[in-house]
Design a protein that fits this description.
Blueprint lengths: L17 H5 L1 H16 L23 E5 L12 H5 L5 E7 L7 E9 L8 H5 L6 E2 L14 E3 H4 E6 L9 H5 L8 H8 L16
Parallel strand pairs: 1-6
Antiparallel strand pairs: 1-4, 2-3, 3-5
Bound molecules: iron/sulfur cluster (SF4) (2 copies).
One iron/sulfur cluster (SF4) binds next to helix 4.
């Protein structure tokens, strides 16, 4: 068995002077600090709701759903936000759609604010800028049902987004919003590997 060396560090007791042993200077210094705080007091209380505190630009408040150019909701019900949510606060029920070349749209889009921790992961996950963290923070209700907000509450057509309607749907981007209907075109698209990439134009014949 190997003996382990133990390092012992011997500490000396601090030697207090006569005045330090009285403790009177320390008490007086503490009183001076207290008096300075009283005489230089700066009130930081905000008289909410009459006064509203300015929030930082990156504040993560209640969610908003921006609108597109047609004033429609941008969400394509891909459910990536639902998967990314660590508290399972988002619930989406999709329905088929044939508007703007998208396949689905949300029939129901709810966020349960009893679960939400305002982490913003859902916004990070959204491929088409259909969900953002807003600046509102008033969140109260007389019952639990009132804390489950629907897409009608989130949707704000006054907030616009310039992002492509659906980055995830490469068919839409490829055809500039036209809905594919020719069988040849559909079969050609079905043969692609699913990754959108613009093919360079063939070199012009000389
Ligand atoms: S902010 Fe976070 S917790 Fe709240 S809905 Fe989005 S992902 Fe879920
Ligand atoms: S990730 Fe965006 S587009 Fe997809 S369901 Fe969520 S909000 Fe809608």
């Amino acid at each position: 068995m190997v003996a382990m060396a133990i390092n012992v560090k011997v500490l000396k007791r601090p030697q207090l002077s006569f005045w330090e042993k009285l403790y009177i200077p320390q008490v007086l210094r503490g009183l001076m600090i207290t008096i300075r705080h009283i005489t230089h007091f700066q009130p930081i209380t905000v008289k909410y709701p009459e006064e509203v505190k300015a929030l930082p630009e990156n504040y993560r408040g209640l969610h908003v759903m921006p609108g597109d150019d047609e004033g429609e909701i941008r969400c394509v019900a891909c459910k990536l936000c639902e998967i990314a949510c660590p508290t399972q606060a988002i619930s989406i029920v999709s329905e088929p759609a044939d508007d703007y070349g998208i396949e689905r749209r949300p029939k129901v889009y709810n966020i349960d604010f009893m679960r939400c921790v305002f982490c913003g992961f859902c916004v990070e996950a959204c491929p088409c800028d259909a969900l953002r963290m807003g600046m509102k923070y008033e969140l109260s209700s007389y019952n639990r049902a009132g804390l489950v907000h629907t897409k009608e509450v989130f949707f704000d057509p006054n907030i616009k987004s310039e992002a492509p309607r659906d980055n995830a749907n490469f068919l839409y981007k490829m055809h500039k919003g036209e809905i594919l209907d020719s069988p040849e075109e559909i079969s050609r698209i079905m043969g692609l590997d699913g990754t959108y990439s613009e093919k360079p134009d063939p070199p012009a014949a000389t």
